[in-house]
Amino acid sequence: MATKKEEVARLTDGFHLVIDALKLNNIKTIYNVPGIPITDLGRYMQAAGMRVLSFRHEQNAGYAAAIAGFLTKKPGICLTVSAPGFLNGLTALAHATTNCFPMILISGSSEREIVDLQQGDYEEMDQLAIARPLCKAAYRVLNAEDIGIGIARAIRASVSGRPGGVYLDLPAKLFAQVMDSDVGESSLVKVVDAAPRQLPAPDAIDRALDVLKEAKRPLIILGKGAAYSQADDAIRELIEKSGVPYLAMSMAKGLLPDTHPQSAGAARSLVLKESDVVMLIGARLNWLLSHGKGKSWGDKPKQFIHIDIEPREMDSNVEIVAPVVGDIGSCVESLLGGIASIEWTPPSAAWTKLIKDKVESNIIRMASRLQNNNIPMDYHGALGSLRTVIKERPETILVNEGANTLDFARSIIDMYQPRKRLDVGTWGVMGVGMGTAIAAAVETGNPVLAIEGDSAFGFSGMEIETICRYNLPICVVVFNNGGIYRGTDVNPTGDKDVATTVFVKEARYDKMMEAFGGVGVNVSSPDELSRAVNAAIDSAKPTLVNAVIDEAAGTESGRIGNLNPQSVVGKN
């Protein structure tokens, strides 16, 4: 007869089934904020050998999970408490879905029978209904025997097709449900081929090549979908074999070095206006590309070839004459096979020379601005010094957010390796910086340089305590000009309150890092900035550099001021 101890040993519960299901699918890192009802789940996860990183705010834990998904092609996991914690994580979930990052937001929730009758449970909220419109899929698990299926469905939904965010609702009572351990183990699901290849139709490849080979002024645009695909070698081979100039969008920078002879990055305006055939690889014709029309694209007729895994993306803004639907790796390999089977003629020397001359003239024109050592610094001098740091340390992951800090950095700082530039993505979200930096360091082990505007840093600055707690090799540089865009605005009423865009003068963000045991440095020149950042990366210690920028150096909304219309009331 079995002893009572032996009977207990054959039991498992909801807590451990969640853990076992995740580990069975090789998910071993969790980004979370502890609290009721998931505090014990985090403890059990850590005891089971999973890495559980606790943040100071759920939104930042969510941004970490989202970028972890981008870097690894596995769903990043954010674990939150119910109601307010869930809502904090929901911004990051929507951000992940918009940017096509695989992520699963797992939130504890109140009991259904109380929520459905609106009887006032602790943190009562119908979280599943709220999440549904903002993610790819949303599921709730009510019974312990369904945990394996629920997690399997969430994993598959997040990474298959166009990746995105998935919500998984786990009511508090689920965790305490007990069942036989053998039955529980048999209920778990190991997801097989979660993101299967989606091969393009042969006629779609032929059509795309027919359009491309007839082009007089072709251009390839690489988006972050191309970077996510990790088809780096095939993409490089396609560009080099075709001879077509390319333009890398922000998070696609580094798929080929920005210094590559076919890079048109420094001639962006020219190639958008003058090209006649544009091939988009994992890029969308959204606001970041002026929707494929308007003055940015000039008055010359354009034909578009579009490679994307989502067929509904085609014709979203302009006519796509050659849609190629499939996963990017398969599509690019098929294009390479097609080029090898036909007589291919590279673009004309006149077109490539026009671009090369423009690139060289723009680089020369900018050189002196990037080499200035002004005190206080302007954006060009400060970013020019950091440009050299990245050139000398190409393995460093660059995280970047802000207004001017973002807009100038992405055009000034060259990247040399894929998936080394991480920024705000499609929505232009403020506050992704610290969560993104933490996940980048955790998932890759590489040093991280986070270049932050002082406004952007304010959204997630408390996470520097998290950076120090886990002793991560992250150097945060805060471009401090004392305000949003700039620190020179004045209150038009003359009232004692400062202008809406002005912060505390001469703030010392470096002291915040020192308060948590990290290294704080205050700098006022590009040379000092370069020395401080190099020392930080060499030391691998959590460091914050307060980089004092001329308070008048910024511009309204960076360089997208047209999106922030100015009132004409009261003007002549």
Q: In one word, what is the shape?
A: globular
* Low-pLDDT regions: 566-572
Biggest pleated-sheet summary: 6 strands, parallel
Mind telling me which CATH architecture of the largest domain this is?
Answer: 3-Layer(aba) Sandwich
How helical, in percent, are the residues? 40-55%
- The class by helix and strand makeup works out as alpha/beta
- Report Rg: 25 Å
Strand order of the largest sheet: 3-2-4-5-7-6
Could you please describe the fold and organization of this structure?
This protein is 40% helix and 16% strand. Residues 566-572 have low confidence and may be disordered. Helix 17 runs parallel beside helix 23. Strand 14, helix 18 (404-412) and strand 15 form a beta-alpha-beta unit. It has 23 helices and 19 strands. The protein has three domains: 10-186, Rossmann fold (3-Layer(aba) Sandwich), CATH 3.40.50; 202-356, Rossmann fold, CATH 3.40.50; 371-558, 3-Layer(aba) Sandwich (Rossmann fold), CATH 3.40.50.
Short structural description:
The chain is α/β, with parallel strands linked by helices and 572 residues long. Helix content is 40%, strand content 16%.
